[in-house]
Structure formats: C-alpha cells, structure tokens
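Retro notes (design track)

What went well: tokenization of the new backbones is finally stable.
What didn't: we kept losing track of which sequence belonged to which structure.
Fix going forward: every design gets posted as structure first, then sequence, in one message. First example under the new rule, 269 residues:
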C-alpha cells in the first residue's frame, strides 16, 4: 500500500497512545478512517482526531468474539472491506503467570492474539477478492524475547509475530501484504498496566522510552515499503540484533533493567 490517498484504514485501540498517532498520521497521508475502541471516552478522542476523514466508529470489546463481529459489521458489506486493517489494540500486565488472575491473562490472549486473527479472518476474503489490502500487526519486541514477568504478553506477541509471518507467506501473489511492527518501550498509557506479585512497583526508566509518534511514523513507512518486519526504535533494533548474535548479553541487560525499574519505581512512589 504505497499510496494511502482515499484508502480506508480500520484502526483498533484507536484512542490509545499509538492509536491516536495512527489516526493523525494515516489522516495526514490522505486515508479515511474506521475507528474502534473499548470505551466511548477513548473512542471520542480518536473520532475528534479523524475529523472529516471519519468513515465509521464503533465501541467494541475486542476481547470477545461478539466485539470482533460488531467491528466487522461496522465496516459495511464485503465489497467495502477496508484497504488496511491495523491490529493495534492490546493490553499488558506484569507478574509470574500464577500470580496473575487467570481471567486477566485469558482476556489478554483474547485481545492481543485472537482478535487480530478473528478480524483478519473476516476481512481477508474481501481483500483477496479485490486483489489488494494490508494487515498491520502491532506486535512487540516482546514477540522476540521471553521477558521476565511477561509470559502471557510475550506468548501473545510471539503468536502475533508467527501469525503475521505465516500469513505473509500464504498471501504471496494475492496483492495483500502483511507488516509486523515490534516496538520496544514507548511513552503510552500501557506502561501503567497492572503488576502482580511484586513487593515494589516497577517503572520503565525514562531514557528507554521512545516517542509514540516516531514509532508510528516508522510503522507506516515500513508498511509503505511492504516490509514484513519493522523494528521502529533504537532499543527494538538493538534487542533484535542481540537475540540473534549475543543472547547472553541480553539476559545481563535484562537483569540490569529489572534493577533500574525497581529503583525508578521507588523514586516514582
Ligand atoms: N507502548 C509500548 O511500550 C508498546 C511496546 C510494544 C508494543 N506495544 C503494543 O502497542 C499496541 C498499542 O498499545 P499502546 O502502547 O498504544 O497502549 P494504550 O495506550 O494502552 O492503547 C491500547 C488501546 O487498546 C484499547 N483496549 C484495551 N482493552 C481493549 C478491549 N478489550 N477491546 C478493544 N480495545 C481495547 C485501549 O482502550 P482503553 O484505553 O480505553 O483501555 C487503548 O485504546 C498494543 O498492542 C501494545 O501491546 C506497546
């Protein structure tokens, strides 16, 4: 999708940190927007950012099958499937799996992994029939590395990465493309997610945080270039490099990061 002028883009989690940036940047590129979020309050800020370029907006809980169906219905008939599906909505929590209430990590898996698969499953036939389309999956650098205290989040993001990679192979020659984006830590509300089983709240040190506007700009650029994998910030690129060539360094860095996050948490309290 090299030219986004008048293309319809469906963005999930549109009122969130990355979501709002996506609305602004897709709009600036000439796209029309179908927006969804779980709360009306979040959705309304996205709707305001979309202005005249809004096609439709819908409140839906994407952690349920019904919520996914509601979003698909809002897209309209099969001959009007969006040109781009952005699987952006996601949640996080920290803590060892058995310390996280089961309903919370099951909801996370539904939203972060099953919703992108459900939405893609519904929209793909129309895209393939039309011979054009793009699926943009917001995975994470946690889709490459098993990060301490993030087992369900990593499972969902590894899953999304595998899903996108396989889908891209399956869609070869159809005119439908897939881009997976793997941000590291970025300054968005997800950083305030619940933590379970820790004595001390952990806070990501400020120097590790990227600007969501930059992350989204790189994601859109990667999409335009039809890249399958996009590492949109410095730490994502470093992590990906170390995973392949020096994973032991990464483990050492992770221990330091945990200690820094505990210290930053003490200062923040
Ligand atoms: N920021 C980072 O450091 C980072 C790094 C790597 C990957 N990511 C990924 O980036 C994506 C966007 O996250 P973000 O950083 O922009 O965080 P965010 O600001 O918290 O955005 C997440 C969005 O998802 C929505 N959402 C939550 N539960 C939902 C549900 N059940 N159904 C539908 N929507 C729901 C949220 O709505 P409410 O705000 O109303 O709850 C919010 O608009 C996520 O997939 C996340 O995993 C983020």
């Amino acid at each position: 999708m090299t030219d986004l002028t008048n293309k319809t883009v469906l963005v999930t989690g549109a009122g969130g940190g990355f979501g709002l940036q996506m609305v602004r940047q897709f709009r600036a590129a000439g796209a029309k927007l179908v927006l969804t979020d779980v709360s009306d309050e979040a959705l309304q800020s996205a709707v305001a950012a979309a202005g005249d370029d809004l096609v439709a907006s819908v409140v839906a809980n994407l952690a349920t099958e019904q919520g996914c169906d509601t979003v698909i219905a809002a897209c309209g008939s099969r001959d009007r499937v969006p040109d781009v599906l952005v699987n952006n909505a996601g949640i996080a929590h920290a803590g060892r799996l058995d310390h996280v209430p089961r309903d919370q990590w099951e909801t996370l898996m539904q939203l972060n992994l099953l919703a992108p698969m459900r939405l893609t499953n519904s929209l793909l036939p129309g895209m393939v029939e039309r011979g054009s389309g793009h699926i943009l999956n917001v995975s994470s650098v946690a889709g490459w590395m098993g990060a301490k205290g993030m087992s369900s989040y990593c499972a969902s993001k590894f899953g999304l990465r595998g899903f996108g990679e396989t889908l891209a192979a399956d869609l070869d020659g159809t005119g439908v493309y897939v881009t997976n984006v793997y941000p590291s830590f970025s300054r968005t509300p997800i950083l305030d997610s619940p933590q379970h089983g820790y004595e001390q709240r952990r806070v990501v040190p400020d120097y590790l945080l990227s600007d969501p506007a930059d992350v989204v700009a790189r994601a859109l650029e990667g999409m335009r270039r039809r890249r399958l994998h996009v590492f949109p910030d410095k730490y994502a690129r470093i992590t990906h490099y170390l995973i392949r060539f020096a994973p032991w360094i990464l483990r050492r860095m992770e221990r330091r990061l945990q200690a820094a996050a505990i210290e930053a948490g003490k200062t923040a309290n």
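Added context from the reviewer: The first helix runs from residue 17 to 28.
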